[in-house]
Amino acid sequence: MNKRARNRLIGITAIILVLLGLLFVTVMNKSAATNLSVKQFAAKKTDGKRVQVSGTVVAGSWNKQTNPMKFQIRDSADSKGTGPVIDVQYTGSLPETFGDGVQAIITGTWMASGSFLKSSDMTTKCPSKYATATDAYTVGDLLKRKTAMVDIPIKVAGVVGPGSLGGPGTSPRFQLLNAAGATEKLPVDFVGGLPDTVKEGAKVVVTGSLDAQGTFVATAVALSK
Predict the structure, then answer these.
(1) Which of 118, 109, 110, 112 lies closest to 89 in space, CA to CA?
(2) Span 48-88, pLDDT tens digits
(3) DSSP string for 115-175
(4) pTM > 0.85
(5) 104-138 b/e (C-beta count within 10 Å ≥ 16 → b)
(6) DSSP state of 44
(7) What's the first-to-final CA gap in the chain, in angstroms?
């Protein structure tokens, strides 16, 4: 290859690299998500803008069976529940820790025509909680008294049964046993988020009440101290 041809090739290669660099920067700018709280996002919604919004899942606002799944989030600092909420339509896989009151970080696009955040990318944060089992019923004790215990707020301690732990929206969420290998089982419903530390075989304390069908409707699930 002569010198002129080599210089021409170098020049063409340089131009191609510059164009690829510009294309990469353009794509990154379009796909980059601005990180906002619910309060910040609600104050300035931009149609078609890719954003990342962090907020708390509003209790009772979601149904796993809808397609796409719809739910709401509110600002995590909004303890009184009087601030704005954002409607979300989600088509991605549901994190195992998803549930009422969970901190959700959602990346998506605001659709002004329907006033909702369209997303297929979500992560959730659900910190582990701990509770003492000293004042809790055992599964066996509760089952012996279940007729008289309906709708009475109590705590029950036990072990998450093997193969029983389901994802968000499943009923029951898991089976509670007296101990590993025990035959007595208590079905537990829970719509809140379960931290990753609540696994099959984990010792837990559940707070809630027994319904007329014999299912324990939990309002809180904590690891046993």
Answers:
(1) 118
(2) 888 999 999 999 999 988 889 999 999 998 988 889 999 99
(3) TEEEEEEEEEE----EE--TTPEEHHHHHHTGGG-BT--EEEEEEEPTT----TT-SSSEE
(4) no
(5) bebbbebeeeeebbebeebebebeeeebebeebbb
(6) S
(7) 77
